[in-house]
Amino acid sequence: MRQTPFKPFGYEPVLTKEDVTPVKKKKGDRAGNWQDVLKRIWQLVDEQRGLLITVLLLVFVSSALALAGPYLLGKIIDKYIVPGNFAGLTGTMIWLIAIYLLLSIAMFFQNYWMIGIAQQTIYRMRTNLFAHFQKLSVGFFDKRQHGELMSRVTNDIENVSATLNSSFIQVFASILTLTGTVIVMLTLSPLLTVLTMTIIPVMFYAMRWITRRTGKLFKEQQKAVGDLNGMIEETISGQRIVKAFSQEDRVTDEFIVKSERLRRTGFWALTYSGFIPKVMNMLNNASFAIVAGVGGILALNGHVTIGTIVIFSEYARQFTRPLNDLANQFNTVLSAIAGAERVFAIMDEPIEKDEATLRVDTKLIGKVEFDNVSFKYEQSDEEQIISNVNFTLKPGETAALVGATGAGKTTIMQLLARFYDTNEGEIRIDDIPIHEIPRQTVRSQMAFVLQDPFLFEATVKENIRYGRLNATNEELIEAAKQANAHDFILKLPEGYDTVLTADGGEISQGQKQLLSIARALVADPVILLLDEATSSIDTVTEMKIQEALERLMEGRTSFVIAHRLNTVKKADVVYVMDQGQLVESGSQQQLIDQKGLFYNMLTGSSTAQ
After folding, report:
1. What is the DSSP string of 458-505?
2. What are the residues facing 448 on neighbouring strands?
3. pLDDT score recorded for residue 372
4. Is residue 306 packed enough to be buried (19+ CB in 10 Å), middle (13-18) or exposed (0-12)?
5. Within a 13 Å sphere around the CA of 157, how many CA atoms are in the beta-carbon half?
6. How far apart are CA 74 and CA 314, in angstroms?
7. Apex CA 33: angle with CA 31 and CA 39, to 5°?
8. pTM of the prediction?
9. Tally: H helices and E strands in the chain
10. CA atoms of 531 and 508, how far apart (whole Å)
11. Annotated domain spans of the chain
């Protein structure tokens, strides 16, 4: 991986695509183990270790300066204030001011650079996660709520960001301060040091009691946030359906249940974690009282000086303050680890396996064969979705897939596009087994026109160009004309530059379908997959879409899923599916003459429509 130059001042790393690669998970690493989670976060910081070492050195310097201030103050009291010797006080005070000024400068730069390191690390984590999403199979997304996945990219990673921005430095500084404070205290008075440290066992057991409860609660809170986000995204996306079926009250009740779960887990997580600063403040005050009381007795008996008591009083606070900081940051760290676990759990999901080594540099011809193909979803106890399907479609032919809902028509298309792989049998394109052709090659020579076309929040031009990103404006316009979309596009406020909202909410279903056909035309595919492209469309619009589809299918191998049987008239061959099996095949007239299932569907004597 490319090494980023070490540039502390004004440091702003510039990433290239090669920087944004997932950290390789070492053997034994598991997303659910907090030690492994921290190890994997550390791997993300690898390119900035030079700057991180500089930050840690500054933390060491600032911790030393923070310890030097109270020590120098105590010496000022013993050497100048108590004896009434003010001759050298001014010079010493200047040193004291210089110490605190340098402390401020060191803390500014350590925070400034640490923020840059944190943001760079979070950028890599977020980008790696998003890139991993693009490598996962369609089946992965079919089984999960989209809003819950979005929560991992946003909320969970933000929790990690908050910890790296502040907690990392604070934890390291607290450890250094604790170590330095104990060393100096022991040199001044071992007895007072031992008395000050009597709070540690109490603190340990209190922290242990609290953290046993907060760890599980923070994990549950993150899960509740993901579930709630998933429900919100799903409900907003399906708002028309919610209103059409008058389900507003039901989804509101469901939201209340999920929101109540989040409120409850958040309440107890924060309640238990809120005990930590209260306990630490109580122990801090107890420690100060012990030092003041015992130190006063020792001072009266001449065993320690007043300056030593002042130093110890400050160090007693400096001793408990890092403990308090560590306790407070522990909550943030727990929340961050819970978020990172959820992120790495996605990163550990297996990507689409593509062991194909065959390079296909020229366009495919479009011959498609299914040889005894069977399929069922992984880890499913149900019967196979399709079984023993056999057919051969010649280049340029159009096949209509008909049958009842659930007969396996869409599954055939998904297998052909390699969204899923067959359990048994083999699919061949141009006599080449499909698993020997890289997925990207297969899909780059296919185009989909679905029943519910999806449009991006972008201009009309950009939505059409999604079929082939290097298409010229002239090619886009020609595709739109062939798709019968050009006229209505010109009537939009900005024509081809009109920005559509998410999923094209401001244009009709038929117009969205015409744009999806234009997108397919621009792609210039060899194989077309049409999934009931004319359903839910009025008759006039259907004629326009049908005309555009005929232009699109011309000379291309096409698979058409059709519930409306009149759409199969021009197909070269009709495949009739029933309960996952191919039961009839032939031209429309041949199937009518057989008076089988297709004939019953056509005449309406069967309930399968």
Report:
1. SBHHHHHHTT-TT--HHHHHHHHHHTT-HHHHHTSTTGGGPBP-GGGT
2. 529
3. 93
4. middle
5. 23
6. 9
7. 80
8. 0.66
9. 21, 10
10. 18
11. 29-347
At the topology level, CATH places domain 29-347 in ABC transporter transmembrane region fold (1.20.1560)
Strand 573-578, strand 581-586: pairing: antiparallel
**Torsion of Cα atoms, 599 then 604 then 608 then 609, to 10°:** 110
In terms of Cβ atoms closer than 10 Å to its own Cβ (0-12, 13-18, 19+), residue 596 is middle
Would you say 580 and 384 are in contact if contact means Cβ atoms under 8 Å apart? yes
Q: Which residue has the higher pLDDT, 140 or 355?
A: 140
Q: Does the pLDDT of residue 357 top 70, yes or no?
A: no
The pLDDT of 219-233, averaged and rounded, is: 78
Instruction: Give the closest residue to 219 by CA, choosing from 262, 260, 182.
Output: 262
Amino acid at 71: Y
Q: Report, as an integer, the average pLDDT of 474-498.
A: 89
d(CA 287, CA 160): 34
Provide the residue type at 292 as one letter: A
How many alpha carbons fall within 13 Å on the CB side of residue 46?
Answer: 14
Alpha-carbon distance of 496 to 487, in angstroms, equals: 11
Q: Does residue 14 carry a pLDDT above 60?
A: no
Rounded to a whole number of angstroms, the distance between the first and last alpha carbons of the chain is 57
- State pLDDT tens for residues 288-316: 777 777 777 777 777 777 777 777 777 77
pLDDT of residue 245: 63
Instruction: Count the alpha carbons within 13 Å of 401 in the hemisphere toward its beta carbon.
Output: 27
Six token digits for residue 561 = 């899923």
